[in-house]
Amino acid sequence: MPPKKPVLKSKPSPNTPRPNWPVFKPLLPSSDLALTTLLPSQIILIHEFFTQKLCSTYVKFLNTLPLVTTPGKPKRGDALRFNDRYQVNDELFARRLWEATGLRELVCGGEEEDGKGGGMTEEERRELWGGEVVGLNPSIRIYRYTQGQYFDCHYDETNDLVLATKPSPTPVKTTWTLLLYLTSPTTGCQGGETVFHPDELPGKKNTVEKEIAVGLETGMALLHKHGHDCLLHEGREVTEGEKWVIRSDLCVRKEKSKGVFT
Ligand SMILES: O=C(O)CCC(=O)C(=O)O
Ligand SMILES: [Fe+2]
What ranges does the record give for the region Disordered, renumbered to this chain (predicted)? Predict the structure, then answer.
């Protein structure tokens, strides 16, 4: 049996103060954004989710945060990642990223589309996203990769969370990873592709025949399914310049059946 591939565990740090994030301006009108399927039910892209100008504003701002270089040597079973990171629990920012950018309409369908946005029915959306998407994971992770840094092959795991919604909290689980790239070759960053690999785990039905390398594009968002169906993937080594990423996850409502949340 091949060795078990590491799973990425994310630990939010509850006491980090909320950063004074720049406003999301300028953005393209949400009607100009679309979900582009790269691999059905697995990898979806949103080109120009952030404009180039907004990305450059964010990179300048994120540079002022106290990023910490992750140690080259992970704990047993953790993925080897080597980058500079900042992690904060920020429900407000997660909500803004969900509501003020057009992401919610893209994922859940807009009102004007009569509940059938993007040609998908309500049922198809639930099937695709793994339930009713209610927002983004408040655990916001910022990555900076400089020359020679990378994120080794791993799977992203599902997390169970409780969102602090009003009037009552909402139990959720994460189902898809969101990566928002703020830099690319046009800003002087070479390498750093997110690469999905075939994997040889016995009985794993969600795999790819050939590797899929997604090149960086300034302002592009990438969504990929995680948890049980996660594809083996890596953040390839950056060979020049800096790669900046904002990471969160889609959260779906946990269904309560027979008194148990699933
Ligand atoms: O930076 C990348 O391209 C990949 C990041 C990643 O895989 C993760 O955050 O789990
Ligand atoms: Fe990952």
Answer: 1-20
Atom number, ligand 1, closest to the C-alpha of residue 214: 3
Condensed to tens digits (0 to 9), the pLDDT of residues 5-19 reads 666 555 555 567 899
Cα separation, 230 vs 21, whole angstroms: 30
Give distance in angstroms: CA of 203 to centre of ligand 1.
25
Domains belonging to the chain, first-starting first, are: 41-253 (2.60.120.620)
Say which residues have a Cβ less than 8 Å from residue 17's Cβ, sequence separation at least 6. Answer: 88
- Pocket of ligand 1 from Cβ distances under 6 Å: 8, 143, 151, 156, 177, 179, 194, 233, 235, 245, 247
> What ipTM was predicted for this assembly?
0.99
pLDDT digit string, tens, across residues 74-90: 566 666 778 999 999 99
